[in-house]
Amino acid sequence: MSGAGTDSPASSSAAFERCLAVGGVALFPADTVYGLACDPSNRFAVERLYRLKRRRLDKPSAVMFFDVELALAALPELGARTREAMARLLPGAVSLLLPNPGGRFPLACGGDLSTLGLRVPRVPALTEVRWPVLQSSANLAGAPDARRLADVPERLRRAVDIVIDGGELPGTPSSVVDLRRYEDDGSWNVVRPGAVSHDQVAGALGWQFHFEPATYMELMRAEVPLFDRLQDEVAAASGRGARRILELGTGTGETARRLLARHEDAALIGIDLSGRMLATAAGELAQERVQLEARALEDPLPAGPFDLVASALCVHHLDAAAKASLFRRVREVLAPGGRFVLGDVVVPADPADAQTPLTPDYDRPSSVADQLGWLEDAGFLGAHVTWSAGDLAVLAAEVGGGGRHDR
Ligand SMILES: C[S@@+](CC[C@H](N)C(=O)[O-])C[C@H]1O[C@@H](n2cnc3c(N)ncnc32)[C@H](O)[C@@H]1O
User: Fold this and answer.
1) Which pLDDT tens digit goes with each residue over 122-140?
2) Taking the CA atoms of the chain, what radius of gyration do you get in angstroms?
3) 237 in helix, strand or coil?
4) What is the C-alpha to C-alpha distance for residues 91 and 122, in angstroms, rounded to an integer?
5) 248 Cα: distance to centroid of ligand 1 (angstroms)
6) What is the CATH number of domain 9-205?
7) Whether the Cβ atoms of residue 147 and residue 173 lie closer than 8 Å to each other
8) In testing the pocket of ligand 1, which one of 184, 187, 317, 364 has its CB within 8 Å of the most ligand atoms?
9) Is residue 178 within 6 Å of ligand 1 at its C-beta?
10) Ligand 1 center to residue 252 CA distance, Å?
11) Using one digit for the tens of pLDDT, what is the confidence trace for 175-208?
12) DSSP states along 100-169
């Protein structure tokens, strides 16, 4: 083990590179918290790093470069719009989720080769490092991040091959920004709030509509006067006695709260694009019954089987093809006898009923008839409307094969 705290950037960069080149694991200061690094193409080193921190091998890690130009050169498949966004955000305390059509850095991708996590921090001691590294925080899986070397578990400090001391670090982990759709439609999303504020990210990437957790209820009650009625109708259509629920678009937890009250023995997995909305939901819902995950409806759904999949006021953000695809995937994660309940804004039969204000390119409602058709195409039985008023409707549909929960 060698300490490099007082060395010049050239010598600590060289020591760091030498360590990684021979398959070692380095403990180093990022611009946020302490991290562990190894050669991302050396399976032995990657497995050792994961074992040291007791991280499951199917979990992804970020690939870190210490120079933006080197990162851009290593990912030639990325489109011009994404590259420009990267150049605006980096270097800095953000982790970017990028499309990975070339399947690069497979050992860092966990189970999903289509996504690459990228970091380019500002690290004075390592400015001369020319090679990418696989990096993960210097803690045991699930434990707090290390702001000082002394916060890194002693076991890790002793097991690594080199320790670079960067003194006391800011301590707030990077913000995780999803840019996987940025090339196609300019949309982006902060999936984990962190060191870089939402406004700073928005300043670099451009304005797009985002729900603000603090003003969400005020906005909804102003724009959707029947908001609470719709939520109650979704809960009512969900039957009774579900034990495993998947909710799509949990937001601040309004729908989840009602579903959990109605299905007293249920555990709920809630997904939503917005880590900020979910952070509010986490404070509102009974922790032991809820698991919240920042992911898009377009991504693979959490593994089932679920007795109930429910969603309120979220699916209308998808276009027609994405809705049809979602319904097929929902069908696949439902157990025999399971139910799908969808409460949302729709395109009403009478245009005069279109009262809910819509944001272009963000709200994409479809008609009830189209959605019932896609549910049927997906293999659901008896898709029907349980409630409707103006341009709001609740649809329910079932999977055949035996009543899992009472109605
Ligand atoms: C109007 S809120 C509904 C939240 C909650 N179900 C309720 O009724 O209060 C819509 C939510 O959908 C989320 N959302 C929008 N598009 C999404 C997508 N493609 N994948 C996952 N969540 C999405 C937004 O972040 C937001 O939290």
Assistant:
1) 999 999 999 999 999 999 9
2) 24
3) helix
4) 6
5) 7
6) 3.90.870.10
7) no
8) 317
9) no
10) 9
11) 999 999 888 777 888 888 899 988 889 888 876 6
12) -TT--SGGGSTT-TTEEEEE----GGGTT--S-EEEEESS-TTSPPPSSGGGS-HHHHHHSSEE----S-
Query: 8 phi and psi, to 5 degrees?
Result: -75, 160
The domain locations on the chain are 9-205, 216-398
Residue 10 is inside which H or E element, if any?
A: helix 9-21
pLDDT of 167 over the 50 cut: yes
With b for 16 or more beta-carbon neighbours within 10 A and e for fewer, the 283-315 pattern comes to eebeeeebebebbbbebebeebebbbbbbbbbb
- Looking at residue 2, what is its pLDDT? 45
Q: Which of 189, 309, 314 to mutate to test the pocket of ligand 1 (most atoms within 8 A of CB)?
A: 314
- Domain 216-398, CATH: 3.40.50.150
Task: Write the residue with the smallest CA distance to atom 10 of ligand 1.
Answer: 314
Helix, strand, coil % over all residues of the chain, rounded to 5: 35, 25, 45
Determine whether the shortest distance from the Cβ of 273 to ligand 1 is under 6 A. yes
Ligand 1 center–CA 110 separation, angstroms: 26
Q: Give one word for 368, left, alpha or beta, with left for phi > 0 and alpha for psi -120 to 50.
A: alpha
Sign of CA dihedral 121, 139, 196, 294: positive
- Evaluate: CB of 139 within 6 angstroms of ligand 1: no
Nearest CA to ligand 1 atom 8: 312
Compute, in angstroms, the gap from residue 259 CA to the centroid of ligand 1. 16
Query: How much distance in Å is there from the Cα of 157 to the middle of ligand 1?
Result: 42
DSSP string over 320-388: HHHHHHHHHHHHHHEEEEEEEEEEEE-B-SSGGG--S---TTT----BHHHHHHHHHHTT-EEEEEEEE
Residue 396, amino acid: A
Closest residue by Cα to atom 4, ligand 1, is 251
Is the distance from the beta carbon of residue 90 to the nearest atom of ligand 1 less than 6 Å? Answer: no
Task: Output the CA 166–ligand 1 centroid distance in Å.
Answer: 40
